[in-house]
Design a protein that fits this description.
This protein has two domains: 6-221, no CATH class; 317-401, no CATH class. Helices cover 37% and strands 10% of the residues. It is built from 15 helices and nine strands. The protein has a seven-stranded mixed β-sheet with strand order 1-2-3-4-5-6-7. It has a two-stranded parallel sheet with strand order 8-9. A hairpin with a 5-residue loop joins β1 (47-51) and β2 (57-64). α3 packs parallel to α4 (154-163) and α4 (154-163) crosses α6 (188-204). Mean pLDDT is 89; it is low at 24-29. Bound molecules: iron/sulfur cluster.
């Protein structure tokens, strides 16, 4: 086998890492300047962005340690039966790249995932070694996000949490049945057990000992998980129901939804049902409504009979259109909970409404100044100088918001 240069490995293993979600941005169009006609590119991989615990957006070197894998997950381009080009970094190479990129100010941290080589323990042990070397030998203070291998020795995962800011344990697919059929080597019970252990270990890290000493920090940025959507028949109601359980059971910081990308040489027959990127985008919006806007899964997915989100309009607007009896809402009197349900009102706008209306009665222009999207909101609200009249119940209201259907590009 020809020996690959570090640069070639970086090209292969950063490209392979694009299927690991670490931030919720996707869906832009493909632009590149590799032909020398411009500057910048939306298609390159290697550096991604994520939010640090203090809310800053930071750049991460995002790579796989290797894309060799002994498992055969049907939805994964790196599965053992796939014929993609393979590469493998040594732990020392990953440490070297991280430090060099950091010194050149390209990145503020490392996002590391991996295929499984030899065994889960061997792979996890190398990943821990990378994090340990960065922290203890090079005093690396940047952000580290490690994707853990759920069936690795719990002691290795525990050690990973002492060096990494965030740990991820992927649930892979929305249901146990889907995991069993598409990723037969993975065990959903084992995945949940590992997530529970991380939660317990993190909770224990908050307690002081009898001498008042705090234990060492454990994954201070918490744990997250990733679910591939579109590779099985699960509806959006099933996916969001699973997310809700995961958030509450394991105190997750984030569930990442990763649109299933059809694999060019896929031998497995996977059902590709709905446009994947549009669906991923709507799921992130719905997830946000569940966590911060007081909606429940039944309300969000109940607007359509098949349990799937409307891809043409955002989920809050879809809910409002299906519940027009609750509108128009008097912005000067409605509760915070109800204002959060108005399409076009974000949490910040609602905060501004509540504080301003203590002093005076709000008008249409006030809401524009507060940042409300009145194109969406005006059919659903009344103000001192505004009433939507028949607009709220008009039969073409949905059509005013829905763009002509279009599939977004995959990468
Ligand atoms: S274990 Fe991970 S890398 Fe390996 S085939 Fe499954 S999803 Fe892909």
């Amino acid at each position: 086998m020809t020996k690959l240069t570090l640069q070639t490995k970086l090209a292969i293993l950063s490209d392979a890492a694009k299927y690991d979600a670490s931030c919720a941005s996707s869906g832009t169009s493909r632009r590149t300047s590799r032909d020398g006609t411009g500057l910048g590119s939306t298609t390159g991989s290697g550096i991604c962005h994520a939010y640090a615990p203090d809310g800053r957006c930071i750049s991460l070197l995002k790579i796989l340690m290797t894309n060799f894998c002994i498992y055969d997950c049907a939805y994964c381009v790196n599965r053992v039966s796939s014929n993609v080009e393979r590469a493998r970094f040594t732990p020392e190479e990953v440490v070297h790249l991280t430090l060099e990129f950091y010194r050149r100010n390209y990145i503020e941290g490392l996002f590391l995932s991996s295929g499984i080589i030899k065994s889960s323990d061997a792979t996890m042990s190398d990943m821990v070694r990378i994090a340990r070397t960065l922290r203890t030998e090079h005093n690396f203070r940047g952000y580290i996000h490690l994707k853990t291998i759920p069936d690795a020795d719990p002691l290795l995962i525990e050690e990973a949490g002492l060096f990494a800011d965030r740990l991820s344990i992927n649930v892979e697919l929305p249901t146990d049945a889907a995991v069993k059929s598409y990723a037969p080597e993975k065990n959903p019970d084992e995945i949940r057990r590992t997530m529970a252990n991380v939660r317990l270990r993190k909770d224990a890290g908050r307690e002081r000992s009898h001498t008042g000493k705090r234990p060492p920090k454990f994954a201070p940025a918490g744990q997250s998980t990733q679910m591939i959507v579109g590779a099985d028949n699960s509806t959006d109601a099933t996916i969001l129901g699973q997310s809700t359980r995961l958030y509450s059971s394991y105190h997750l910081k984030r569930v990442y939804y990763s649109a299933f990308s059809p694999i060019p040489d896929a031998t497995a027959k996977l059902p590709l049902i709905r446009p994947p990127l549009a669906r991923e985008h709507r799921l992130y919006q719905a997830d946000w409504l569940l966590r911060f806007y007081g909606f429940d899964v039944g309300e969000i997915t109940g607007a359509s009979p098949d349990g799937n989100l409307d891809l043409a309009i955002d989920p809050k607007l879809a809910w409002a259109l299906a519940n027009r009896a609750q509108f128009p809402m008097d912005v000067n009197r409605a509760s915070r909970e109800m204002l959060l349900r108005v399409p076009g009102f974000g949490a910040k706008t609602v905060g501004r409404i509540l504080s301003t209306r203590r002093h005076r009665t709000l008008r249409y222009d006030d809401l524009l100044r507060m940042g409300a999207s009145m194109t969406k909101a005006r059919a659903f609200v009344t103000l001192l100088d505004w009433t939507p009249g028949a607009l709220t119940d008009s039969s073409d209201l949905r059509a005013r918001f829905a763009p002509p259907p279009e599939q977004l590009s995959l990468f």
